[in-house]
Amino acid sequence: MAYHGGLDRDAKHEAIERFHQDAQVLVSTQAGGEGHNLQFCHTLINYDLPWNPMRLEQRIGRVHRLGQLERVQVFNIVTEGTIEAYLLYLLDRKIEMFTKVIGELDIILANLKESYETTLAHIALDSHDEQELQSRMEAFGRELYEACRTYEEVRRLNASIFDDQSSVLELEA
User: Fold this and answer.
1) Is the pTM of this model over 0.70?
2) In this model, does residue 31 exceed pLDDT 80?
3) Coil vs helix vs strand at 112
4) Which of the four pLDDT bands, split at 50, 70 and 90, describes residue 111?
């Protein structure tokens, strides 16, 4: 089953319906992120990681949403030594994207000096060799890690404040 931007609206709807009813596999371009809910599906294979982690989170969210009855499995296929492999490393190891709740990622990324995609582009295009690329990716990884830790600390402090306030409200009632 194929789903792509060249299909008209009716053909897209029909492709999703056929996938839901009969097909085992749906191959989709980025057009698959156009608002269709796929909670009847429980496996997602990314073979072209977008540089924008919000798009990746959106892809996962199409499958992992209310109404999902199965455990969702996400597989990310990358070629070793590519920018996508570095991207996956940063998302998985530095900001632990695949263990976060949908929506937390944009709060973490908002604390970066410039956009995630722009930073990756500068690193990829301005590095003179593999060693410099690795070094700059590691530095960016540390920046992501710190942004993640800052977010988690703010979340922890908010929880302690709101938990204290809810206790006060319970006492007043």
Assistant:
1) no
2) no
3) coil
4) confident
Q: Distance between CA atoms of 9 and 70, rounded to whole angstroms?
A: 28
Closest by CA to 61, choosing from 87, 41, 88, 89, is: 41
> Can you give the three-state secondary structure of 113-152, one letter per residue?
CCCHHHHHHHHHHHCCCHHHHHHHHHHHHHHHHHHHHHHH
3 state SS for 72-85: CEEEECCCCCCHHH
Residue 165 has pLDDT above 80, yes or no: no
Name the residue ranges covered by the structural domains of the chain.
Answer: 37-172
| End-to-end Cα distance, the chain | 58
Show Cβ contacts of residue 84 under 8 Å, excluding neighbours closer than 6 positions: 48, 49, 78
Whole-Å CA distances, 79 to 12, 28, 46, 121, 131 = 30, 20, 12, 18, 18
Looking at residue 67, the DSSP 8-state letter turns out to be T
- Look at residue 139 in the predicted model and tell me its pLDDT: 92
3 state DSSP class of 44: strand
